[in-house]
Design goal:
Layout: E1 3-4, H1 17-22, H2 36-52, E2 57-58, H3 60-63, H4 66-69, E3 73-77, E4 83-87, E5 98-105, E6 108-123, E7 126-129, E8 132-134, E9 140-143, E10 148-154, E11 157-164, E12 167-175, E13 181-190, E14 195-207, E15 220-224, E16 227-231, E17 239-242, E18 247-259, H5 261-265, E19 271-284, E20 289-295, H6 304-325, H7 327-332, H8 336-345, E21 348-350, E22 360-362, E23 365-366, H9 373-383, H10 390-401, H11 427-442, H12 445-464, E24 471-472, E25 479-480, E26 494-495, E27 498-499, E28 506-507, H13 508-527, H14 533-545, E29 550-551, E30 556-557, E31 560-561, H15 578-581, E32 584-585, H16 589-602, E33 609-610, H17 627-633, E34 639-640, H18 644-655, H19 658-669, E35 683-684, E36 692-693, E37 697-698, H20 699-714
Antiparallel strand pairs: 1-32, 2-10, 3-4, 4-5, 5-6, 6-7, 6-14, 8-9, 10-11, 11-12, 12-13, 13-20, 14-19, 15-16, 16-17, 17-20, 18-19, 21-22, 23-37, 24-25, 26-27, 28-31, 29-30, 33-34, 34-35, 35-36
Helix pairs in contact: 2-6, 6-8, 8-20, 9-10, 9-11, 9-20, 10-11, 11-12, 11-13, 12-13, 13-14, 16-18, 18-19, 18-20, 19-20
Length: 718
């Protein structure tokens, strides 16, 4: 019954235990020595790839229209959970927008410190504003977006060009990797005389999920060299506002009732107060630059050109690592693929552990997600292995192995720190798939030996039973999970005490993952000369009984079977596509084709798969309203971008058409030009034109597109 996806997967070469262990002496991240000629060729081709990445660019047709300009958002990150983000228009539309949202307990504890700069340029005797503010009164003032001549991304760095008469001023924003430090650089490219600039620093100090209504709040603003130190209250982390070469004047004035239109749409608090903490005045001549720095570090570097060179060098290295994976793949890639390679890096963050000080994790999405176990394991192969960063994959796998408890992987880590939550049935199963893919790419025997005991304990815990009634049914070898009031699968929306999609019973994708986890363990046991007969026997039993999922009437799979006190759930959902896309399919070839065809006809959209087919009871084609309304629609028809990866690979498996597979990905790939710029968002409405919503940058969406592209590009016809 099992069918290996030979066409879309590279099956690990057969090895003995001794051969696997001998590989531990060789680090997978160390490339072989290259000749100078090879290195020069590689550098030249890498330069060409970097040049491709300036494709995201808008002129006044977007920048000069507030509605369209504020709907396109940029984000830069620092590798420890912090970020800066805003809109092309320059106005703040979300509580999450700001120049410095610092991770005070990396990668969590995210706190908004610097919201923005009110920028005024005096040129030719005329004052011009670069800023745009929307107020609760409905007034938009100033309207600096009207001075934006163009906007572009250089890698992931947003760049604005402002035209002020004959003067041309350029602005860039980026963060230093590994620091809660943001740089805003202004460069005068053209002018007939110098310009004078005033930068008014607007600050805050709050959890990034909250909003500020200041009342009589008084912060301490203390002069320091090149700027000011801000201490919001006793015990708060100090932060610094600096600008070398500028005249700084401490201030303390609350600007009240900023309007946040996106928060209004989301049914949340839509007003905020910001503190004008300091002004910086500076004169710029043609060909010179000035850099504003916001940081939690006392001695943050103020050299903008040097800091920017570091960022450029880092992005170049990321592209080189990807390019080194396969020069042919890189050469044949669409323009948006290298852009996603850079976007992938934004989700990878440091999570230090006593046993693994260099541990890594993955932020599930920006702006509001932390690192989630399920999302991390789904996104890991695409974000790391498909980008030539196997060393990072190893760090993530080892770090998460430390958190295995009762056979389960954490579902998420709280923003404020504390103990992780273990309310996920599939996070642990995705861990097996991530390890399988890691070993398939690296043949890293040392890490496999290190992880194998933990993997074995996880299987044992599921067989014996663990939290939330997760257990193997001894009658059929399938995995049962769930109890009332708990959401355990990826369809995890909950409105109050109501679980929107409870899915208690034996879920189709959970059991597809379970079978693949058993097959992975059987393969690992053979490689390591460990007993594996139990895994093979249990897998065979589960695969045979997986036929219970087949719904003959609809020619596809039930979504959940053995639902307590209810019939099998026949709702047409996308979860069954994993029973085709994973390496081992428990379906016949005819059934696999039928599943792909049904999903294509009823669930496929330009940007992903609907979570529920139109016409099904409870289908909602629009995603809008307050938290309850949105949560109710989250998995009831809303389109998920990450599901396009499994669908494309399932389609490739059934039809063997590489060109068609890429065509399925193309609309989502080119969406790097909308919503979250240079990256891919979380969800889209189920009804056309499939408007984007949710997080502007989502790890598993980016990861699955990159993984699918790598699989397609490595595909070989039999």
């Amino acid at each position: 019954m099992a069918n290996r996806a030979e066409k879309t997967r590279n099956k690990p070469e057969s090895q003995t235990a001794a051969e696997v262990q001998s590989r531990s002496a060789a680090s997978p991240e160390k490339p072989p020595t290259k000749s100078p000629r090879t290195t020069r060729k590689k550098a030249a081709s890498t330069t060409a790839i970097v040049a491709q990445n300036s494709k995201i660019k808008f002129g006044r047709e977007v920048c000069g229209n507030l509605e369209t300009a504020e709907a396109r958002e940029w984000i830069v990150t620092n590798g420890i959970g912090g970020f800066a983000s805003g809109t092309v228009a320059g106005c703040v539309t979300r509580r999450y927008h700001g120049l410095l949202v610092a991770a005070l307990q990396p990668p969590v504890g995210r706190t908004q410190l610097v919201t923005g700069l009110d920028e005024i340029v005096r040129y030719g005797g005329v004052d011009c504003s670069l800023s745009t503010h929307q107020w609760a009164s409905g007034v938009v003032d100033p309207k600096g977006f009207l001075n934006i001549e163009s906007f572009r991304l250089e890698g992931m760095t947003p760049v604005w060009t402002y035209a002020l008469a004959d003067a041309l001023l350029e602005k860039r924003i980026w963060m230093r990797h590994g620091e809660n430090t943001t740089y805003v650089e202004y460069s005068l490219l053209r002018a007939s005389s110098p310009i004078e600039m005033e930068l008014k620093a607007l600050v805050n100090y709050r959890d990034f999920h909250a909003s500020t209504h200041a009342s009589d709040w008084r912060m301490n603003i203390n002069p320091v060299q090149d700027g000011v130190q801000v201490i919001a209250f006793d015990g708060a982390t100090p932060f610094y506002l600096k600008c070398a070469g500028a005249v700084c004047q401490p201030q303390h004035e609350w600007y009240r009732s900023y309007f946040l239109p996106v928060e209004k749409e989301r049914g949340l608090d839509d007003q905020e107060d910001l503190l004008f903490a300091a002004s910086f005045r500076v004169k710029l001549k043609v060909g010179t630059s000035v850099t504003f720095v916001g940081s939690t570090l006392t001695e943050a570097g103020l050299d903008g050109s040097g800091a920017r060179a570091e960022t450029t060098a880092r992005e170049t290295k990321l592209l080189e690592s990807w390019h080194a994976e396969s020069e042919k793949i890189a050469a044949e890639s669409p323009a948006w693929q290298p852009q996603l390679v850079l976007a992938a890096d934004q989700f990878i963050v440091k999570r230090s552990l006593p046993q693994h000080p260099d541990g890594r994790s993955i932020i599930a999405g920006y702006h509001w997600f932390g690192d989630w176990g399920r999302d991390t394991m789904i996104a890991l192969p695409g974000l790391t292995l498909a980008t030539g960063r196997a060393d990072v994959a190893r760090q993530i796998l080892l770090a998460y192995a430390e958190f295995v408890d009762g056979g389960m992987l954490p579902n998420n880590f709280p923003d404020a720190g504390g103990q992780p939550a273990y309310n996920s049935v599939d996070a642990a199963l995705w861990f097996f798939e991530a390890v399988r893919q890691y070993f398939a790419v690296t043949k890293d025997g040392r890490t496999l030996l290190q992880l194998f005991p933990t993997l074995g304990e996880m299987i044992d815990a599921h067989v014996k039973g663990t939290r939330y009634n997760i257990h193997v049914d001894p009658a059929d070898g399938l995995l049962f999970a769930g109890e009332p009031g708990v959401q355990l699968t990826w369809m995890d929306a909950k409105v109050g005490d109501l679980v929107v999609t409870p899915r208690v019973g034996k879920a189709v994708e959970v059991n597809a993952l379970w079978i693949n986890a058993l097959e992975t363990m059987a393969e690992f046991a053979r490689l390591l000369a460990r007993p594996g007969g139990g895994y093979e026997k249990l897998s065979a039993k589960a695969q045979k009984n997986f036929q219970k999922f087949w719904n003959e009437e609809r020619a596809c799979c039930f979504d959940v079977i053995d639902v307590p006190s209810a019939p099998n759930d026949a709702a047409l959902r996308p979860n069954q596509i994993l029973a085709v896309s994973l390496p081992v399919s428990p379906l016949t070839e005819e059934q696999q084709k039928s599943v792909v065809d049904v999903c294509a006809q009823h669930l496929l959209t330009s940007y992903g798969l609907r979570s529920l087919a139109p016409g099904e009871p409870g289908y909602q084609g629009h995603y809008a309203g307050g938290p309850k309304d949105r949560d109710a629609a989250y998995h009831q028809g809303t389109v998920w971008g990450w599901l396009l990866g499994p669908f494309v690979l399932a389609h490739l498996r059934v039809y063997g058409d590489r060109a068609e597979a890429v065509r399925f990905l193309e609309p989502l790939g080119i969406s790097v030009h909308m919503y979250g710029l240079g990256t891919l968002g979380e969800i889209f409405e189920g009804d056309a034109p499939f408007m984007p919503h949710g997080a502007i940058a989502q790890a598993w969406t980016v990861g699955e597109v990159l993984r699918a592209m790598r699989e397609i590009q490595n595909y070989r016809e039999l």
